[in-house]
From TrEMBL:
Record-level Gene Ontology MF annotations: DNA-binding transcription factor activity; transcription cis-regulatory region binding
Source species of the chain: Paracoccus siganidrum
Alphabetically ordered keywords of this record: DNA-binding, Transcription, Transcription regulation
Top-level taxon: Bacteria
Protein name: TetR family transcriptional regulator
Start-end of DNA-binding region: 33-52
Length: 215
């Protein structure tokens, strides 16, 4: 017999999760009704409850899946032989595009809105998405520091600074102004301007070391 705290993973489990995802990302946890979720999933409320005894369990399952999928997207592989003036734009712009994607902005919005109600999920999101971005960026900075092309004492702090000026700022715009369209040219210009400042601050101030888009 299934206990109240357990999730039944039957034939329509993924169908139910897809419907719940659609409604949670659109309406948030509090605004999502079981009626709306059952309609979006194409199942009866009785079927819905047979899989998830209550909405909280459903939200936790959906968020865990979304975080896992979003984490897979954070993968950057520029040519390590490139100098920072060419490699950093690839890393930063790619990560910024991911940060303003539908899945990432939806997670960001829900993570902030429900941090108090679901602190463990918020922590998981922070560690596996937000912190991972900084860790990946710091690893690339370490590579260029080791080659003597950047002069950075604390690459993790520098990575956080660079991300705040680029992807984080663009993601905040996408979350707070969802109706506005962020064009590719705008994204690249924002990243190039931040990179020009960053490279000047950390020793790559020669004209040849400044991203072409920022000159």
């Amino acid at each position: 017999m299934i206990q109240k705290h357990e999730i039944y993973r039957g034939r329509k489990f993924h169908q139910v999760c897809r419907g719940a995802r659609q409604v949670f990302l659109r309406d948030g946890y509090e605004g999502a009704s079981v009626d709306d979720i059952s309609r979006a999933a194409g199942v009866s409320k009785a079927t819905l409850y047979s899989y998830f005894p209550h909405k909280r369990l459903m939200f936790e399952e959906v968020m865990r899946n979304e975080i896992a999928e979003a984490e897979k997207q954070i993968a950057i592989a520029p040519d390590n032989a490139l100098p920072p003036s060419l490699g950093l734009p690839v890393v930063v712009e790619t990560m910024a595009r991911d940060a303003v994607s539908e899945i990432q902005t939806g997670l960001y919005r829900l993570g902030i809105a429900e941090a108090r109600r679901f602190p463990k999920l918020a922590r998981d999101y922070y560690d596996r998405i937000l912190q991972k971005r900084s860790a990946i960026l710091a690893a690339y900075l370490d590579h260029w520091v080791a080659r003597g092309e950047l002069d950075i004492a604390d690459t993790r702090r520098a990575a956080d600074q660079l991300w705040r000026m680029t992807g984080a700022a663009l993601a905040e715009r996408a979350v707070l102004l969802p109706q506005s369209t962020l064009k590719e040219a705008s994204l690249r210009e924002a990243c190039a301007a931040a990179l020009e400042l960053f490279l000047r601050a950390y020793g790559a101030s020669r004209a040849g070391d400044i991203p072409a888009a920022a000159q």
